[in-house]
Amino acid sequence: MTSTESRRASRRQVLKGAGALAAAGVIGAPAISKAQTGAIKIGVPTILSGRVAILGQTSVGGLKVVFDKFNAAGGINGRKIEMVVRDSKGAPQEAAKVTRDLINNDKCEIILDAEASSAAFAVQEVIREIGVLCIHSNSETSSLTADPKLHVPTAFRTARQGIHDAIGGGDYAAKIAKAKGLKKWATCSPDYAYGRSNTAEFMEYAKHFDGNIQVVEESWPKLFQPDYTEVVTKLLNAKADAMYSALWGGDLVAFIDQANLYGLFDKQASFMVNLGDYGVVDQVKQFPQGVYSGGRYNRTVPATKENEEWYQNYVKTQKHKPTNWSWENAVAAEFVVEALKKTDGDTNGKKMAEAIKGMTLRSQFGTKGTVTMRAEDNTLIDYIIGYGVSLSKEPYVADFQASAWEPIIELEKQWKKKQGYIS
Fold this sequence. Notes:
Elements lengths: L2 H21 L6 H4 L6 E7 L6 H20 L8 E7 L4 H13 L5 E4 L3 H14 L2 E4 L6 H4 L8 E3 L4 H19 L3 E5 L4 H17 L4 E6 L9 H10 L3 E4 L3 H12 L8 E4 L5 H6 L8 E3 L10 H14 L5 H20 L5 H8 L3 E3 L7 E5 L4 E3 L4 E5 L6 E6 L2 H15 L4
Parallel strand pairs: 1-2, 1-3, 3-4, 4-5, 6-7, 6-8, 8-9, 9-10
Antiparallel strand pairs: 10-14, 11-12, 12-13, 14-15
């Protein structure tokens, strides 16, 4: 055998061995097994264009406030974090493609999925195949982490979860409904996984706490829908006492501006879980009075020194106001940093996941000064949940009422049993 033939034979043996390892699930992609030197590259698929670009802008801001501090302190073992941010345009297929490119071409070792729910499920399947650490920092659709069939050992969620908001929000809405006689309800939420599941869960628990509530109209506008005339007309014709909406970002701004033309908010009470974001409030031309909103990020909730300091630092360094997505991503970044400390900088997906599972962090976004990554389903608990009355100017929320976690967790267990997620 010539030297050339010998080299070819050796190469075939190496490739054959690698193929066997891959088939056995021992290796997943070149990005996982490469030497861990140089910058720690973290891929961030998100939405950076179109009407809901505020999601991507403020998500990246939340990551930067943590990673910039980490890098300024020297990183870990001489390695600093480098974010590689890509625009998925909120499209599931594009999000999956972008995530693969971030891992295989950009050599990212960790994925922080700052996507809406419409794309987060696609990213989840890529992570299932490749096995790097992933934290979903925006998707609130409950099944992403609640459904054991969708579980991926190296995937976690720091975003609020819909079922948590639904139980706390449903309790709040029921109290208002009883006090004001709000029996007939309409809904108006985006027509995809998050909007459908969030709305169903909210109304389920509003009716759980007030058996007189009934839904008389449902409306499902598409994501990025330009004209809401037909939707508003349906809502007006329903003559409901109250409305629930899970519209968000630029879609919520457009809906409010168009609904104001027909006086919709003068004719019914409105509960809009996502209205509290600073960027949304600032963009609405004529802010409706007396609208109830869920607990998005607010510098006065909780009214602590730590929260105010975080807000001031964010505005100073990022040059815009934080949103709900900002704190969710900041928490995701903090889990990554703490996990890197526990693994001594090893970014192996399995090792990072073992470090994060069950971890509790001190946090100004927690009800008792901490948040925990629940081990049973890799999802965040003990963050602030609640509702209040939205205002068009500081403090942007009045009479905020925080929800207690004990009843939320108990009712969540019952909900999971009903869904068949646990026995």
